[in-house]
């Protein structure tokens, strides 16, 4: 086999009491994030910074419509979804 493409992405696993699902978000995808204080953030996934070890949060960077960069630690994310345009 020949590798034809490698796509960097993050894998989100969502579960409830009945089932679970996997969601793959690629760099540049338009996303909607609800943080731990129920603040809604909408923008494009622009960068992922991995923590140095398991005790450090991974950081997701979102580029908003007004060109602001917002960073949020993964432990502060309550919900995340892809917005299909």
Helix-strand blueprint:
Blueprint: E1 9-15, E2 20-26, E3 30-35, E4 40-49, E5 59-63, E6 69-73, E7 77-82
Q: Which descriptors would you attach to this protein?
A:
single chain, 85 residues, mainly beta, SH3 type barrels, five-stranded antiparallel β-sheet, two-stranded antiparallel ribbon, 0% helix, globular
Structure commentary:
This protein has strands spanning 9-15, 20-26, 30-35, 40-49, 59-63, 69-73, 77-82. It is mainly β. The chain has a domain at 28-82: SH3 type barrels. The protein has a 5-stranded antiparallel sheet, with no helix packed on it. It has a two-stranded antiparallel ribbon with strand order 1-2. A hairpin with a 5-residue loop joins strand 5 and strand 6 (69-73).
Summary, kept brief:
The chain is an all-beta fold and 85 residues long. The protein has a domain at 28-82: SH3 type barrels, CATH 2.30.30. Helices cover 0% and strands 54% of the residues.
The computed structural class is mainly beta
Q: For the record, what CATH class of the domain at 28-82 applies?
A: Mainly Beta
Mean pLDDT: 92
Beta-strand content: over 45%
- Order the strands across the largest sheet as they lie in space: 6-5-4-3-7
Q: Could you tell me the radius of gyration in angstroms?
A: 14 Å
CATH topology of the domain at 28-82: SH3 type barrels
């Amino acid at each position: 086999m020949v590798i034809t493409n490698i796509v960097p992405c993050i894998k989100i696993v969502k579960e409830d009491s009945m089932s679970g699902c996997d969601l793959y978000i690629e760099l540049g995808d338009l996303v909607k994030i609800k943080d731990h204080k129920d603040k809604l953030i909408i923008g494009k996934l622009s960068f992922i910074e991995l923590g140095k070890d398991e005790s450090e949060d991974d950081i997701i960077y979102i580029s908003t419509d007004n060109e602001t960069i917002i960073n949020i630690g993964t432990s502060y994310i309550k919900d995340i979804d892809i917005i299909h345009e």
